[in-house]
Amino acid sequence: MKAAILVTPQKGSAQHLLIQEVPKPELKPGHLLLRVLACGVCRTDLHIVEGELPPRLPNLIPGHQIVGEIVAGATSDLPLGKRVGVSWLGGVDGDCPYCRRGLENLCDSPTFTGYTVHGGYAEYALARADFVSPLPESLDDLHAAPLLCAGIIGFRSLRVAGVQPGDRVGLFGFGASAHLTIAVLHSWNCKVYVATRGESHRRLAASLGAAWVGSEKETPPVELDRAITFAPSGDVVVSALASLRKGGVVAINAIHLDRIPEFDYDRLLWGERQIRSVANMTRSDAREFLQIASDIGLRPQVRSFPLNRVNEALALLKSDSVDGAAAIIP
Ligand SMILES: [Zn+2]
Ligand SMILES: [Zn+2]
Hints:
By secondary structure, the protein is α/β, with parallel strands linked by helices. It is built from ten helices and 17 strands.
């Protein structure tokens, strides 16, 4: 099969992935073999190909927002031809202290799709059967792909931030994940304030009904109940914190941050303000989010790329030049 392979993680390379012919994955017990129909491109893929996350598997095939059709390993619940989604959380051990507490997102021995096992930048992919999500019929392959990480983890961020119906919520950065959370927030009658770099990201936020849109250097005109940061930048975390009311929460939706600058505790954190990180996802996050996405008719903005242009998709994501999400159609 054709696949995009990461040979050497390297910062600033223009050709991170090589398109090669490799053997099709062999079916293993408890797994499904999927024909990949689409695979979303995520900022985490950039952190992997640039080596900001340490390499875990040689000659890795990245990609962890896989829409696939079952071609082998089918069961009565997951029959041949069924369309399923595969996300970042590809498996857990099920018996570590975190799994036993129902916190499988924090599992001590997790499997991450497209990082500790091969992912979906390929014509076929293998996935643990108990970690796939059946996909709503209402979403075609291309539009379902970005829901599987950007969407699910964006949704988890809302939960981690403790968003209540009617809250004033700030989104700092407006990429794939933020543009999916705004529709969920509107369905909860929240007002959404978006601070982001890039004129076209600001236009997209305004067109999706944000109550206020500003640049990354501006502060929303009201005190926020909750804020979610999406940019891999600690400066953004501090400006989100500066926008919060007492008792408010900042949730950081980023697997990697450059650093967090020193900030004034008395002014920014005192008053029971909180900073929390958002780590991975659980299967129930996936189930609940996909149900909500189907109920509210969520339709992401997605730009598609063929597999042999995967490097271009990564480069555009890096320069913030994709409005909405990007996905590979192999
Ligand atoms: Zn575990
Ligand atoms: Zn992701």
